[in-house]
Each structure stands twice: as structure tokens, then as C-alpha cells.
Amino acid sequence: MPLPYEYHIALRYLRAKQKETFISLISVISVVGVALGVMALIVVMSVMNGFREDIRKKIIGAQAHVVLASYDQGGISRWQDLMRQVEQQKHVQAVAPYLANQVMLKRDNHVEGVLIWGIDVQREKKVTRLGQMMKSGSLDKLNQPSQPGDNPLRGRGVVVGMEVARKLGVLTGDEITIVAPVFKVTAAGTVPKVATFQVVGIFEAGMYEYDATFAYVSLETAQLLFEQPAAVNGMAVRVDQLERAGSVARDLQKLGNDFWARDFMALNRNLATALETEKIVMFIILIMIVMVAAFNIASTLIMVVMEKKRDIGILKAIGASRRFILRLFIMEGANIGVGGTLLGLAGGLITCLFLKLYPLQIPGGGSVYYIEKLPVATQAMDVLLITVLSLLVCLVSTVYPAWQASRLDPVEAIRYE
Fold first, then answer.
1. pLDDT averaged over the chain?
2. What is the model's pLDDT at position 375?
3. Do 252 and 237 contact (CB within 8 A), yes or no?
4. Which residues contact 257 (CB under 8 A, 6 or more apart)?
């Protein structure tokens, strides 16, 4: 199918004659501007998607897809029956009960406050990746029996986060003291419950918040420590597809009123909102690069209209309609916009591919989220949105100069030629 006649004229207008070199230079600058804007958008959006995916993987590594937690400090009543109900729900793959509370860890003169989780080791392995995050020791050793003595907790195992281990200066096999918020009245006054545990493992979740504040013991040990026999105050749930976590949480909430259910995104809403807001702001800032290039397209067309005033007058004199002239200059601007967009699209995708094959090291990376290399995750919808938006902005920039050209009076245009 042959191209429209006005398209051929538009291409000729883009080719520079000796006296029109300046206009052609501005056209090249416009193409480069659009290309840089599109390329920057694709690369930055891909990097931010990569950060989001990387952080999300770290969150769901140490945290369940859905969490049920009791409103009552005494725990969830008849939790065994509730666990069976949860396991029977659609899309639920595994459930693990837990008993969590705040404690103090003490080693020599070092003291750290942590959230200690009492877990069913075998069930926990099916819900989270805690077993895979062990840097030393083993999660299975949490079930080791007590050492002989008056205290039934002495010598029981505890797994701590990497940052907790660093702050306390402990390694696998060392002993630490756990001070629980369970108080007894003695002749010396009110004293908290104290027990000596053995560090049987150190884990690294990749999130500073978890590595610096989490510790794990067996569920039986936690029940003894907090003097809550056969009690749990929450359940961790794994679903078959991550995207269904929100709907599963809403379904689980209908099972009772003495607990709340939240998916992992709701539990980390501040972080998720911050990442999403940052992505939107960066998109707006970078699209301005494309808008600047679009203004260059408009200025180029305005100068072309002034330069080709005589040609427009002749075309109109021999029968060219206003619509023909309008399409002519819209096509000329569209050539610049499409060329720049395609060039930027190719450059952006090639850059993302290069960053995936040869990821850049992040200076100082690993201090908070342990992201040492620049993550890249290119999403088709982002690329499509950027491409369409760039073409739309460039197309809009051509309307006014093309409309002005279509309104030229042929008599006035060629009177002095």
C-alpha cells in the first residue's frame, strides 16, 4: 500500500538544504531529546521495579503471606480448631502457629531488645523461607531438650538474626540470657523470668529490620518461657499465589472476631506506599524530559511553517485543502516523535538487558536492605505506557503549528514571492 502523498512531502521537509541546516539541527536535537527521555524512563522504571521485587522477596522470605494475630494477650482460643479451618480455606497451602512476645537478650554487658517467636519448626519451613536463610547452625536444633537442672529452659536453643548476633557478639554454640516480661514476687521483690539459652543458629533475612529485631525458639519453649501452656497468639499462612494474599486475608477474617488477618502488603504498607509514590514521582519528573523535547518539535514545526510559507501557498493555490496541510505538518512532527521514541525504546531495553547481564555494584549497598547490586525488572506494561505516552505527547505538540499552517491564506503567502 503506497504511502500518502503528504507523507513524502513531510519527509522532504525534514531533509536539510544548505540554508535550512539550523532547522534540521533542531529536528535532530528533538529526536535525541525524545530518545533520551524514553530511555531514561524505561531504565529508571525498570530499576525501581527491580528494587520493589527484591525488597518484596526479602519481606516474604521472613514473613508469611498472611498473618492472623490475636486481639487478646491470652492468645487465640481453640486455636487448633481454627488452624484446621484455615487449612481448609481455598488457596491456603500451609499454616504455622506461633507465640510471639518482646524479650531482652543479654550477653556479658550487651543487652538487646528483640521480638522472639515461638514456632513449630516443621510447619514454619512450609510457610516461610527461614530454614533457607540460616547462615550458620540449623533451625531443627530449636527442638533440642533442656539441660539437666532446676530450670526447664536451661540450654534450650534460640536462633537470632545476623545483626542481633553482631551486637551481642555471639556465634553459634554460645550461651545468652533471655529476660522475659513474666514477673514473680520474691523475698527480694518483683523479678522477671530469666533463662539461659544456647544459640543454635544465626539467620540473615536481608532486611535490617528483621535481622536486628527477630529471634526464634520452639513453640513449646515459648509457651514455657511466657507461662502460657498450649497457647498461641497468631498463625502464619502461605497461599498458592502471592497476588491472592489480600483476598485470602479477607476470607480468613470472616472466621472469627477474636483475631485480625492481614496480608504481607498491609503489614508493610508504609514501605510499599513509599516505593509506589517514589515510582510515580520519578515517572512525572522524567516525562518532563519528553515534554521538553516535544516543545522542540513544536518550535521546529513553527520555523518550518515560516520557512515553507511560499510552498504552503502554492500547494493551496493548486487545490490542497486545509486538512491536507494539517496532516502534512502533523506527519512531519510525528516522524520526529516516532523516530525519537523508537530510538529511546531500543536504547532503554538494551541498557536494561546490559544491566541484567552485568549488574552494577551499589556503593555502600547492604547496610539496610542488603541490596549490593542494582536490580532490574522490566515490565511490559511500563514499556507500553511509556511508549504510548511519549507518542501522544509528541503528537499533541504538532497540532498547533500544523493548524497555523493550514490557516495560511495562499494569496498572502505568495504575494511577495
1. 82
2. 84
3. yes
4. none
Helices (H), 203-308: 208-211, 219-225, 245-253, 264-267, 269-307
Q: Are residues 52 and 117 in the same domain?
A: no
DSSP symbols for 49-84: HHHHHHHHHHHHHHS-SEEEEESSTT--TTHHHHHH
**What is the b/e burial string over 332-355, where b = at least 16 CB atoms within 10 angstroms of the residue's CB?**
bbbbbbbbbbbbbbebbbebbeeb
* Residue 85 pLDDT class (50, 70, 90 cuts): very high
| Confidence grade of residue 7 (pLDDT, cut at 50, 70, 90) | low
Beta bridge partners of 66: 237, 263
Neighbours of 88 (CB within 10 A): 8
Reported pTM = 0.70
**Rounded Cα gap, residues 359 and 129, in angstroms:** 25
Residue after which a domain boundary falls, among 240, 265, 290: 265
Whether residues 301 and 246 share a domain: the answer is no
Domain check: are 252 and 358 in the same one? Answer: no
Same domain flag for 258 and 115: yes
DSSP 3: P
**23-64 per-position pLDDT tens digit:** 567 777 778 888 888 998 899 889 888 888 887 777 777 788
Q: Can you name the residues that pair with 218 across neighbouring β-strands?
A: 119
Which residue carries 503489614 as its cell? 267
> Are 98 and 134 found together in one domain?
yes
70 pLDDT higher than 80: yes
What is the b/e burial string over 253-277, where b = at least 16 CB atoms within 10 angstroms of the residue's CB?
A: eeebeebbbbbbbebbeebbeebee
- In the chain, the percentage of residues whose pLDDT exceeds 70 is 84
**Among candidate residues 215, 235, 265, the one where a domain is terminated:** 265
Whether residues 240 and 130 fall in one domain: yes
Full residue range of the structural domain in which residue 260 is found: 64-265
Q: What integer pLDDT is reported at residue 18 of this predicted model?
A: 46
- Asked if residue 364 and residue 313 are part of one domain, the reply reads yes
Q: Is 364 exposed, middle or buried (0-12, 13-18, 19+ CB in 10 A)?
A: exposed
Count of domains forming the chain: 2
Q: What single-letter amino acid sits at 27? A: S
Do 55 and 68 belong to one domain?
Answer: no
The backbone torsions φ and ψ at residue 66, rounded to the nearest 5 degrees and listed phi first, read -135, 140
Torsion of CA 108, 111, 115, 117, to 10 degrees: 10
Residue 314: the pLDDT is: 67
Q: Which of 32-36, 157-161, 198-202 has the lowest mean pLDDT?
A: 32-36
